[in-house]
Amino acid sequence: MSTDRNIVLFDLFGVIARHQRPGALEKMAARCHAPTDAFTTAYWACRPPYDAGQQSAPEYWTAVLRRLSRSVDADTIEELRLTDIDSWSRVDDRMVAYVQSLRDVAEVALLSNIPADHADTFLIAQPWLHNLNHVAFSGKIKVAKPAPAAFHHCVVAMRATPTDFLFVDDREENVRAAQATGMNAHLFTDRDELAAVIDTWLPTRHSTGK
Questions:
Q1: Count of other CB atoms within 10 angstroms of residue 160
Q2: Is the pTM of the predicted complex or chain greater than 0.90?
Q3: Of 29, 36, 93, 96, which has the fewest beta carbons less than 10 angstroms from its beta carbon?
Q4: Is the separation of the CB atoms in 65 and 161 below 8 Å?
């Protein structure tokens, strides 16, 4: 049952924000005196608990360094942490403008897999986020996509039902997970295709009373 609301729920990275800055993993690997391939493997293998708010930044970077058999010290951890945050800091200005424009015709929310310290920096650097109807960062809500609880958080927080949502993400597993919870969902490729999907979705919902 719908509450007769139209909520577009956006992923962040790969949709509104850019993917990781090119060369960032190589830079962090060099700081650890580790091969890039080995560093990249450790970086992603240790990431899930950090994204889901189950580890702090020092705990995450300690796990990465130990996996690489490198010494652990506070200066190295902080340098890696700041380089990592910067590597995920870019946004697509055209998409930011489009997301903001949607607030004239729908509620707009965000659900992103992002560590808590990254989220804090993003909120300061991108004040437009404060104008959205709801913002859910995995490191803050303690659960990451594609876990059903991540989508359930948004439903509960917005006092809505799953069918009120159109979820937009560039990862197919997240789109499928959203659909499994009852949300409408779209696999993002570019702004123009998304705009066409939303332009179709909104009038259809109004005409059917959903």
A1: 23
A2: yes
A3: 93
A4: no
Alpha carbon of 89 to those of 49, 82, 110, 123: distances in Å? 21, 11, 16, 11
Report how far residue 29's alpha carbon sits from residue 138's, in angstroms, rounded to the nearest whole number: 25
- Report d(CA 81, CA 166) in Å as an integer: 33
Task: Name the amino acid, one letter, at 7.
Answer: I
Please state whether the peptide bond connecting residue 115 to the residue before it is cis, i.e. omega within 30 degrees of 0.
Answer: no
Query: First CA to last CA across the chain, in angstroms?
Result: 8
3-state secondary structure of 128: helix
Contact 173, 126 (CB under 8 A): no
Distance CA 54, CA 77 (A): 18
Q: Is 19 exposed, middle or buried (0-12, 13-18, 19+ CB in 10 A)?
A: exposed
pLDDT at 209 over 60: no
Measured CA to CA in angstroms, residue 33 lies from 11, 26, 37, 59 at distances of 33, 10, 12, 20
From 177, 174, 178, select the one nearest 166 (Cα to Cα): 178
Rounded average pLDDT over 122-147: 97
Contact at 8 Å (CB) between 67 and 42?
A: yes
Residues, the chain, total? 210
Phi, psi of 148, rounded to the nearest 5 degrees = -55, -30
Query: Across the chain, what does the average pLDDT equal?
Result: 95
Tokens (6 digits) for 132 = 């959205």
